[in-house]
Amino acid sequence: MQSTVIAPSILSANFAKLGEEVDQVLASGADWVHFDVMDNHYVPNLTIGPLVCEALRKHGVTAPIDVHLMVQPVDRIVPDFAKAGASVISFHPEASAHVHRTVQLIRSHGCQAGLVLNPATPVEVLDYVLDDLDLVLLMSVNPGFGGQSFIPSALDKLRRVRAMIDATGKPIRLEIDGGVKPDNIGEIAAAGADTFVAGSAIFGQRDYADVIGRMKAAVAATR
């Protein structure tokens, strides 16, 4: 199992002072910065683009930026996020005409590549691309909006994908996104996740360090 990564989603941050928010959450123990990129096409919401990523890099953010593309088609926007400073770019197979080609595109621009599975997307979509991935992101809510409740069937899906990753022998991260909180992160970690996206559970609280500390302690208790 890889080291634990807590990746706060800036979707829940205060955008009027985003640079300050990101600085604060990283100083409080967060490991990555998670971007939820929505296009009002693939998902029924509209959020942020590469300019925000570039602005945070210019602001001085050096932590990995984890970009989750909920856009369709996906290939057009990949180079823009890579140029803006993304570290990891993940996309949905439903949003790409040629999944393997999109993975190659992401890597050709110097970023790590991830594939995202919605709650109803079968794990078999990984069969022919898993060896080429750096990360698999399982959605434990339906994409489009923050603040939703964790879908329990994601736990069994985590176990299945964890077994698939372990069988490759490669250091592929298993990320979870949706309804992750201090009181359920231990159970999620026990099912196989090592990378945890949390939005309102962190940015909705007064003390970021306290929440992140409790999350990491809950994960450590399962290792």
Describe this structure in words.
With 223 residues, the chain is α/β, with parallel strands linked by helices. It has a single domain (5-220), classed as TIM Barrel (Alpha-Beta Barrel), CATH 3.20.20. Helix content is 34%, strand content 18%. The protein contains 8 helices and 8 strands. It has an 8-stranded parallel sheet with strand order 1-8-7-6-5-4-3-2. Helix 2 (50-59) packs parallel to helix 3. It is globular, with a radius of gyration of 16 Å. The model has no long low-confidence stretch (mean pLDDT 96).
Mean of all residue-level pLDDT scores: 96
Query: Can you tell me the number of structural domains?
Result: 1
Q: What percent strand? A: 15-25%
Order of helices and strands: EHEHEHEHEEHEHEHH
Q: What's the alpha carbon Rg, rounded to whole Å? A: 16 Å
Termini, distance in Å?
Answer: 9 Å
Tally of individual helices:
8
Q: Classify the secondary structure makeup into a structural class.
A: alpha/beta
